[in-house]
Prior knowledge:
Blueprint: E1 2-9, H1 15-35, H2 40-55, E2 57-66, E3 69-76, H3 86-104, E4 107-114, H4 125-134, E5 141-148, E6 165-169, E7 176-184, E8 188-190, E9 194-205, E10 214-221, E11 227-232, E12 236-242, E13 247-255, E14 268-276, E15 280-286, H5 291-301, E16 306-312, H6 335-341, E17 348-352, H7 362-373, E18 377-381, E19 403-410, E20 417-418, E21 450-455, E22 459-463, E23 469-476, E24 479-484, H8 490-493, H9 502-513, E25 523-529, E26 532-538, E27 547-550, E28 556-559, E29 562-565, E30 568-574, E31 579-585, E32 588-594, H10 613-618, E33 623-625, E34 632-636, E35 643-644, E36 647-651, E37 656-665, H11 669-689
Parallel strand pairs: 3-4, 3-5, 5-6, 6-33, 8-14, 15-16, 15-17, 17-18, 18-24, 34-36
Antiparallel strand pairs: 1-2, 2-37, 7-9, 9-12, 10-11, 10-13, 13-14, 19-21, 20-22, 22-23, 23-24, 25-26, 26-30, 27-28, 27-31, 29-30, 31-32, 35-36
Helix pairs in contact: 1-2, 2-11
Amino acid sequence: MTGWDGLVFAPRLDWPILWALTGVCALMVGLALWQGLRGWWLRGLAALALIAALANPSLQSEERDGLSDIALIVVDDSASNHLGVRSEQTQAARAHLEAELDSLGGLETRIVSVPDGPRNTGTELNTVMAEALSDLPRDRLAGVFAISDGQVHDDMLELSLPAPFHLLQTGEADDWDRRLIIRNAPSFAILGEPITLGLRVEDQGAVPPDQSRFATLNYSIDGEDPSTAMVPVGEDMEITVTLERGGMNVLQFEVEEEPGELTTRNNSAIVQINGVRDRLSVLLVSGEPNAGQRTWRNLLKSDPAVDLVHFTILRPPDRHDGVPVNELSLIAFPTRELFVDKIDEFDLIIFDRYRRRGILPNSYFSNIARYVEEGGALLVVGGPELASADSIWRSPLGDVFPARPTARVIEQGFRPQITELGQRHPVTSGLEALVPATEDGPGWGRWFRQIELEPERGQTVMSGVEERPLLMLDRVGEGRLALLASDQTWLWDRGYEGGGPQLELLRRLAHWMMGEPDLEEETLTATAEGQRVTVLRRSLQDEVGEVTVTGPDGESFTLELTEDAPGDYRSEFDAPEIGLYRLSEGALDAVVALGPQAPREFEETIATADKLRPLVTATRGGVLRVQDDLPELRFVREGRAASGRGWMGLTSREAYVTTQLRTAAVLPGWAWLLLAAGLALGAWLREGRSH
Length: 691
């Protein structure tokens, strides 16, 4: 097609000169008018003809090819738009729109899909639509159609659409859903102390009138057997739990499914709380002063989280000076209060080179043995006293010992060694790597005294002279006991022959005895980074079985573990979806949570037009439920209402592209000059006759 673009100029002189000449001509014509010359207007026309000749006016025309209008269809492919019958409704609406647009003719249809946003950001429909619009010419946009449940989670952008925006809303009018909301939960908690979490069970949508106003809530810690409570719907509530295990605890809450609700993906929630100890209470019972005593005291006092009670014998009762035993201390030491009344308040008891001297009766030692069997922790550091007739092994406390002293004290230099079992045990594994190794073995210094032991049970993780047991660990009933057959760890602390990892060894030993999860011998743990899950299995065994993984959808699969280091087995897998994964291997269980249990897509599931209505209103578009009908499409003039009962409109843009540009002079230059001369002659003749 051809179109006229208007009048254009190609002046023979620069525009400033041309405007100056125009001003001079206007001044001369005005002077002629002021003098009363009858031909003034002919003079003006002659001047105008001269100016036109210099301005060189031309008529411009274009050869144009028309362009088709564009209709954009935005399809919501997020998780919430797949609930119920929404997938079928979306497919039907898309097919209908494509057919209607094709029947109108002269239209180009473009379709974009809106998936779930990365990192649980929900449905970013506005962002995807803005990106799609940036890739197409705005002057060809005839209309935008969104097929969605209306649950969008990004901010409304300043799109300034030149065409109507329509929403074809999926979902059904009688949809309803129940969800669980965690209103507040701490990130950490003190072990053994109750913590309070705020929850709310909420119904949304067209809730049936006969629906119960109470819900059944099940909650569990680290996959243990769940507890059950009846909770009100639509009210804030609090629930109290107590953590007993240190480290990360996974709490799962789940509301039982009700018939007819839209989805159960928002019926559960996961809370991860780090369990920490408030303060550790340690009782250190020392015999006569020795070089290692200060090492223990400094180690325990340097930790601000440790409350230390130190019971020591500063003056041995076997010194024959006539002073009664009950007068050896400046103040009466509360032995009954410590070893009977309040013994269960201690997290750890340490006997450092202590011998029986009549100060603690056998009934107290029996009570200490009972304390260990019922969950307490006992560390015995043995010197020559352990092999003597006054050894605490010869008291009722000996019943819980993992080994029997032979009464032999070995006085010779030796370098402590990590046993084969110790290479796998978390208390001693990797200790050798902390000190540069030598050709003879570990790079740490020697010790010079060891008490000979005959093992009866337990685990030997370090050995000394001729591979005799040096450090033994054992579980006694519910408690733990460690037996160190030497009193010379202080040589490492003093740096003798290069020293050794004394601080790390004692720290691990104390933490293992107090049940820290990171130092358990048999553990199954899982950590997640994004969708990648790393499974770790620590074991003292040479082989472990396969790990069974159960996903949030109830489907299970198995993993084979590979030994990375002595006692450490590992495997990885990519989780197909976010949620709670349960892992089991033999008697061990673990859980790992990926993202929120109820993703953002399932926080609000009832279809709505409210979030997109401002854009619909601003562009004179419309909203139609797919459940009710599918619209007829028609063209409307720009600025008119673009929707009505059963129909939606598009605005024809009549866009084009110029293929050829033509120009033609209004008059040739000589014609302008001839016209100017004729007008000037006419003015002269008219003014001549007037005289």
